[in-house]
Specification:
Layout lengths: L2 H10 L2 H7 L20 E4 L21 E2 L5 H4 L5 H17 L2 E5 L22 H16 L4 E7 L12 E3 L2 H19 L3 E4 L3 E2 L2 E2 L4 H11 L5 E4 L7 H7 L10 H12 L5 H20 L9 H13 L3 E5 L11 E4 L17 E2 L5 H4 L5 E3 L11 H13 L2 E7 L18 H13 L3 E6 L14 E4 L7 H9 L33 E2 L8 H6 L17 E11 L2 E10 L5 E11 L10 E10 L4 E8 L1 H4 L1 E3 L4 E3 L3 E10 L2 E6 L2 E2 L15 H6 L4 H15 L8 H6 L2 H9 L6 H5 L3 H16 L1
Parallel strand pairs: 1-3, 2-12, 3-4, 4-6, 5-7, 5-17, 6-9, 11-13, 11-14, 14-15, 15-16
Antiparallel strand pairs: 7-8, 10-16, 18-19, 19-22, 20-21, 20-25, 23-24, 25-26, 25-27
Helix pairs in contact: 1-10, 2-9, 2-10, 4-5, 5-6, 11-15, 13-14
The protein binds beta-D-glucopyranose.
């Protein structure tokens, strides 16, 4: 970027102009400096379509925005597990932004799905940080290929709507790093977003907007972020503190009082002008990058993009269950039941709400001859006995009944969380009534988050469209009738019931905040550790064909490990398989999840075709965040590398050994346990020698009591007693004097520090 030009401009700016640039010009524009040729550029929501408001502005989706194309929401697109697809969607969005003069798209939204109840889960990607990070990076790359920025949001730990502007997300450092920051870290490092949007909430008591550790130390200094940080709309608490922390742009504007506060702070020395200049520089850099970019002529072709939206959704929908009744045959007598068939719910409410050009329904795209009964409305929980009876009759007369169920808008939205995980009662009851007369039932779901499915065992097929964007109708019929083969995979676990979710006891917290007491055990990390039955596991998704895995092999190159596995399409249809790579720590390190996703690869295979999936691992793939080390750490030892169809369907594995270059800090003192010292290769030999020498002390005395007592002291018991003993007990165990113990401690510490 034109360094000299930027500093020349800053040199000519008055203090007031600099302060003004640090807040929006209005709801959707950054401030410019017209006299110096800096225009006020526009930003717009995001994340799955353009919500450009030309007229009356708001951040809740209340007022009209221009006609645009609504792509599938994050809840759906993450299920594609497909980086190329997300990049293509991003590029389409980028072109739309360019055509509409939008410089920064406010998205992607990548917060973790801690609880199924979070009202905004529909916009977010996953309960898994690796998957969310990969999806985000791909979307960002796509948008920014048009030299349009993205503002990845909401940084950080904004996982509920309850008290979203004041609550505090309280957690330990390891949980924050491993679960709530990783997706942002991957997005920043892999795709260099132009902007980051800080969240409303506090983290361990400090507002995200005033969190220097987050906005400067971690984001910039550790991860190398080189764009600017903007606030979520209204997230600034105290302007000067926010600027100090690393928040450049306050949105929305104008904020004359806060601008004046910045000016005063410089004048009274609370803020240095250099600090303000740096903030201005970071924003100018992005504004000029947008303004000066040379890109092809952009066109917003709404019809073409509608088709892209439909095609994307075909790659996202998840076939949750299929006992062989799907795909439907053309000519089969089919009844479509439920209001969602005619009025699909395809997007969520709030700031992501798109004024869609046109929305397709499954009903209008259905083959001729499909009959329709509304049975229940799409927008509320309302029972109408007559409508239900008509629907039940239609189901009975048909060969197959397809019930279009889902969550009405009022059940989930930005701004509030759900209070339960159920579908409207009228829908569950309708499904029950239809099952009484018709066994061939398909349930198609439209929802932004998992729902309880009490009928899942009796219904032979379930297809989840999530919130599938404006082309959801075309996509649904293509999948139901087999013109497309389902290949989506769950980006989140569907628990049997809400109470099973690990955050259940600590959601949504109270006035003071919410405790993330489950730590790193969110989603499948928890269900797997507890060996719990779930409705559908993370990564799950059926297909109309089948795949076989073979020949897992590893090779290492320059600090990275390549993992290869052959996948064969063993069925009769073309289809896509997502190979999922999970890592299991077998080193004995306590407190680690059973397995964690560390690689994905989607392959497209013709019937009978075999391809090799190539995945990659690095040190980080094996690591956890150590608070002792303030760094990522993986112990030496063996790790299982699992190649899987889902988190609970492992198809191949290898178990390499890892040699760590890192050493855990160890402070040896009187209360360090023998076990800890034996587990550390630096201290183990010294201690082993002591134990060998003292073995006679540990052996039973000649005049020891009889057999009965000796039997009670098992070998394991002695071993554990020794392991769990602190060094000070060496006096008792090994007959060492205090001076000898002190000398041993010194020797051990020397070995650690060597
Ligand atoms: C939302 C953001 C959004 C902003 C602007 C806020 O309420 O949290 O995600 O980008 O409004 O509409």
């Amino acid at each position: 970027m034109n360094e000299k030009r930027i500093w020349e401009i800053i040199g000519k700016m008055t203090l007031e102009e600099k302060a003004a640039l640090c807040s929006g010009k209005d709801f959707w524009h950054m401030e410019g400096v017209e006299r110096l040729g800096i225009p006020p550029v526009m930003v717009s929501d995001g994340p799955h379509g353009l919500r450009k408001q030309d007229d009356k502005a708001d951040h809740l989706g209340v007022n009209e925005s221009i006609k645009a194309v609504c792509f599938p929401a994050g809840c759906a697109t993450a299920c594609s597990f497909d980086e190329d697809l997300l990049e293509r969607m991003g590029s389409t969005l980028g072109q739309e932004c360019r055509a509409e003069n939008v410089s920064v798209l406010l998205g992607p939204a990548i917060n973790m799905k801690r609880s199924p109840l979070c009202g905004r889960n529909f916009e977010y990607y996953s309960e898994d940080p690796y998957l969310a990070g990969k999806m985000a990076a791909a979307l960002i790359r796509g948008v920014q290929s048009w030299q349009v920025g993205t503002s990845v949001k909401h940084f950080a730990a904004n996982n509920q709507e309850y008290r979203r502007m004041s609550g505090s997300s309280n957690m330990d450092e390891r949980t924050l790093r491993e679960i709530y920051l990783t997706a942002f870290e991957m997005a920043v490092k892999e795709a260099k977003p132009w902007a980051v949007m800080c969240s409303y909430n506090r983290i361990n008591g400090t507002f995200a907007s005033e969190n220097r550790k987050l906005l400067t130390e971690i984001l910039r200094e550790e991860w190398g972020f080189d764009g600017f940080v903007m606030s979520d709309w209204g997230a600034v608490n105290r302007r000067v503190d926010a600027l100090h922390a690393g928040l450049e742009l306050q949105m929305p504007g104008p904020c004359p009082e806060d601008d004046a506060e910045l000016v005063r702070a410089v004048q009274n020395g609370e803020l240095s002008e250099d600090e303000l200049d740096r903030a201005v520089e970071r924003m100018l850099r992005i504004i000029l990058r947008y303004e000066q970019a040379e890109v092809p002529q952009a066109v917003f072709d709404r019809e073409a993009d509608h088709q892209i939206a439909a095609d994307i959704e075909k790659e996202c929908a998840v076939l949750l269950k299929n006992d062989g009744i799907l795909p439907l045959r053309r000519g089969e007598k089919v009844a479509y039941l439920g209001g969602f068939a005619a009025k699909p719910r395809y997007q969520g409410g709030g700031s992501s709400h798109i004024n869609s050009t046109r929305v397709s329904s499954a009903l209008e795209c259905a083959p001729e001859g499909v009959v329709y009964e509304e049975a229940f409305p799409a927008d509320r929980d309302e029972w109408n006995e007559e409508a239900v009876e008509r629907a039940v009759r239609a189901a009975k007369d048909a060969e197959t009944a397809v019930i279009f169920a889902g969550l009405p808008d009022s059940f989930e939205s930005e701004g509030y969380d759900r209070s339960h995980m159920r579908l409207p009662d009228c829908q569950n009851e309708l499904i029950r009534r239809v099952l009484e007369v018709q066994k061939r039932v398909v349930v198609v779901l439209h929802c932004g988050s998992p729902v309880e499915t009490p009928w899942a065992d009796e219904v032979p097929a379930v297809l989840c469209m999530y919130l599938g964007g404006e082309g959801v109708g075309e996509a649904t019929d293509a999948l139901l009738y087999g013109d497309a083969n389902p290949c989506g995979r769950l980006a989140e676990t569907w628990p049997l019931r809400l109470e099973d979710n690990p955050s259940y006891l600590n959601f949504p917290g109270d006035e003071d905040g919410v405790s993330y007491a489950e730590g790193v055990y969110i989603g499948y990390r928890y269900y797997d550790k507890k060996k719990m039955e779930v409705r559908w596991p993370f990564g799950h998704g059926e297909s109309y064909t089948t795949f076989a895995y073979s020949n897992v092999r590893l090779s290492s190159e320059g600090g990275k490990v390549r993992v290869l596995v052959d996948v064969t399409n063993t069925g009769a249809r073309e289809g896509k398989e997502t190979v999922q790579l999970y890592v299991e720590d077998c080193t004995g390190t306590p407190g680690r999840p059973v397995r964690e996703l560390k690689g994905i690869k989607k392959l497209s295979l013709l019937p009978g075709e075999k391809k090799t999936a190539e995945l990659e691992l690095d040190d980080r793939s094996l690591s956890w965040y150590s608070e002792k080390l303030h760094d990522w750490y993986a112990a030496s030892g063996s790790y299982r590398i699992l190649l899987a169809h889902s988190s609970r369907d492992v198809r191949g594995e290898a178990t390499p050994t890892y040699f760590s270059k890192q050493r855990m800090p160890l402070h040896v003192h009187h209360n360090t346990t023998v076990g800890a010292l034996l587990a550390d290769p630096r201290t183990a030999p010294i201690l082993q020698e002591v134990i060998e020498k003292a073995k006679s002390m540990l052996a039973p005395a000649e005049d020891a009591p009889g057999e009965a007592a000796a039997e009670a002291i098992t070998e394991e018991m002695s071993r554990q007693m020794l392991f769990n003993s602190p060094l000070r007990a060496a006096q008792m165990f090994f007959g060492m004097s205090k001076a000898e113990i002190d000398a041993l401690i010194e020797k051990l510490q020397k070995a650690v520090d060597a």
